Amino acid sequence: MNFKIPSFKTDKELFKFIVENEDDIIYSKKETIKLADGFSSMVIAPKSFTSKSGSIDLLSKDEINVISIINTTKLLDSHKDLHIDGIWDKSLQENTRIKHLQEHRMAFDSIIADKEDLKVYTKNYTWKQLGYNVEGNTQALVFESKIRKERNSFMFEQYAKGNVDNHSVGMRYIKMVTCINDEEYPTQKENYDKYAPMVANKAELERTKYFWAVLEAKAIEGSAVPIGSNTITPTVSVKSFHKEEENTKSSPILDWLKN
Fold this sequence. Notes:
The protein has helices at residues 11-20, 22-31, 89-94, 153-160, 186-195, 202-208, 252-258, and strands at residues 34-35, 63-72, 81-83, 99-102, 111-113, 118-126, 137-148, 167-180, 210-224, 235-240.
């Protein structure tokens, strides 16, 4: 089921439609496996980083260790969804089969890492640490992947060359609430007042005046993508697995923080 919200001439008409069809809209969002990618007018361009090659040639290695930001909370995305801190807590406890994929393609030749080669966790960052020049912090969904050249040589090369700067999560929503900035709808207005102050991209919030706060979601996979609806999802580091060697490619984020 894919519930489409039609266009309306006024906010009042739009809000009335959303509230009258709230159950169906939320059901549709929950039943759809959501891929957090796509284009919209709100795509944020974070600070540009320049990767600096280290002294070791990553492409000559058979394995590299990659730390990627798959998703960040408190950013209103192009689907008008706002992920709230703690969204992944239950999922990460229960789902041990999460996969690191190439462009959401659930096929053997598109798996980048899984099982013992993938560690999934959440970590708090400031927005500025991730290249977004606003105050505040976010809870990131982080993939720490051992990428083997023999398994996915193409994505091994893309990460090794520093070409992957965006990621996206494939998920299913479990708990969410509607948020509307209108006193006529007290429940939705209460939700709006509770979660709107968390939104990092305030300009997008002002344009939409409504959104859905996602309190719990099931993570199925995380993907390397050309661009996602949440664009604050960079690669944090790429390095060799041999401890006696220094980082084979400096993290562009960490390079910037040192300057």
